Amino acid sequence: MEKDQLFTRRRMLLGSAAVLGAAGVGGALMSGGGDEAARTTAGLAGPQARQALKPSAFRLQPLIGSGTPHTAAPGKLKVRHQPILRLTGKGRNMMLTFDDGPHPDYTPHILDTLAKYDVRAMFFVCGEMAVENKELLARMAEEGHVVGNHTWTHPLLTEMARRDIRDEIERTSDVIEDAYGDRPQWFRAPYGAWNRATFQLGAEMGMEPMAWTVDTTDWMTPGTSTVVKRVEHGAAPGVVILSHDAGGDRTQSVRAIREYLPYLLDHGYHLTVPPRRMT
């Protein structure tokens, strides 16, 4: 559990950064900002497993919730100055996202709950966890979840050289492609810490940057009831929920989703993932 404890200790040190990411979403949907703003801390259906895939040119749409995918001409992604913070579009759409996994003790239980209610979610995985639990990424693919890139070792990217950032991201994308069946189309910076290099490198590798709207702060293990309350009180159209399936003891996260997921569904929310588009 040393790796999990390291994640937790570093999160405690950078807790203010994560809170700033969650609190700062009110002023932006998918809008851009200046390069200086990008240096501040800011806060989306999975393919079948590789053996079931034909060579694919699929990419994911920007966050529009549900709807008919549109075709788009091939080309590089534009470099954003802020991460995408929430879903846009009509309807009571929300999205659940889980960071730091997959973890053999927690991720299967979260996947079981999602399967029970026929809900899809997004998992931002760390390469060092994914390489040890490839069967869980294959399951995510088979069950229609979206897998994003959360770097290899969960470092603070804003303190790293550009070549080292690229290595962290690229190695993780390679493992995801091998286990999940497709390269990731979304990237989330650890601790919600972004800068110009992270936006540029993510775009070069074909990934959109994604943050969150509501931070459950489950990484602080505040208690299952607190995590549930934060999701239920934060629920609204377009909201992206941040939770974790690794990086510490995630028993509370496992218990919480069993409570808040039926609540969200009973209140008319559609838990969605980004649709794919042809390039």
TrEMBL record:
One of its GO terms (molecular function) is hydrolase activity, acting on carbon-nitrogen (but not peptide) bonds. Gene3D superfamilies: Glycoside hydrolase/deacetylase (3.20.20.370). InterPro entries: Glyco_hydro/deAcase_b/a-brl (IPR011330), NODB_dom (IPR002509), Polysacc_deacetylase_ArnD (IPR050248), TAT_signal (IPR006311). The keyword Metal-binding applies. Residues 92-272 form the NodB homology domain. GO terms for biological process: carbohydrate metabolic process. Keywords: Hydrolase, Metal-binding. It holds the Pfam family Polysacc_deac_1. GO terms for cellular component: membrane. PANTHER family: CHITIN DEACETYLASE 1-RELATED, GLYCOSYL TRANSFERASE-RELATED. This is Polysaccharide deacetylase family protein. It comes from Streptomyces bauhiniae.
